[in-house]
Specification:
By secondary structure, this protein is an alpha+beta fold. The chain contains four helices and seven strands; from the N terminus they run ββααβββαβαβ. Strands 2-3-4-5-6-1-7 form a seven-stranded mixed β-sheet, with helices on both faces. The protein is globular, with a radius of gyration of 17 Å. The mean pLDDT is 93.
Length: 194
């Protein structure tokens, strides 16, 4: 545990507060918006996954999957306990939902995000309702999800409004993905690079 106080973050690193959330019942189902579809991805290449991951997570400095070597990422993508879905309109991806089904009875939404051009259109509520209903109908006791202070300023409010409750918080310090060359220098302009 950290003592009360202030702590220096090393040069080239970021510090975030992660809020761990849990949902114990599904919100009411919402019909799919016209022209939108969900596609489960069963054989996505690591290169295609990284493009999708950057498209959705670049402005929020999503990093974890970008740091994996190809073999580790491919192993994750073919793991039967991982389910990857893309949100599509007109054939092109607009977002992604990655589920971690490893925990018996308590699956986790590992990644939930839309490309910038897809936000503000009600897609998030439709997606969350769909996955909550799917998971609870499949026998989930609860659903876990994490968000952090680098996510969209609306993210935590959105998750709380869709039935999640905060369980605990933690602080994480990690290398800035821009300093590592995993994301371009212009990513997340609201987060100054040190």
């Amino acid at each position: 545990m950290l003592d009360t106080g202030e702590y220096d973050v090393p040069q080239g690193h970021l510090a975030v507060v992660v809020t761990h959330l849990i949902c114990r019942r599904a919100m009411e189902a919402i019909p799919a918006p016209e022209g939108m579809e969900l596609q489960i991805e069963r054989a996505m290449s690591s290169e295609t996954y990284r493009r999708l991951f950057r498209m959705v997570g670049r402005d929020w400095l999503w990093t974890s999957r970008l740091m994996l070597e190809d073999d580790a990422l491919v192993a994750l993508l073919i793991d039967p306990a991982v389910a990857l879905y893309t949100v599509r309109s007109g054939g092109g991806p607009l977002g992604m939902v990655e589920l971690d089904l490893n925990r018996s009875g308590i699956p986790r939404i590992a990644f939930f995000g839309l490309a910038p051009e897809a936000t503000g259109r009600g897609l998030g509520h439709w997606l969350m309702a769909h996955f909550q209903n799917m998971l609870f109908e499949g026998g989930a006791e609860a659903i876990r999800l994490d968000t952090c202070t680098l996510d969209s300023p609306q993210a935590l409010r959105f998750y709380l409004g869709t039935g999640f409750e905060a369980e605990r918080r933690e602080v994480r310090v990690f290398p800035d993905p821009r300093a590592l060359g995993l994301l371009d220098e212009d990513a997340a302009p609201f987060v100054p690079r040190l």
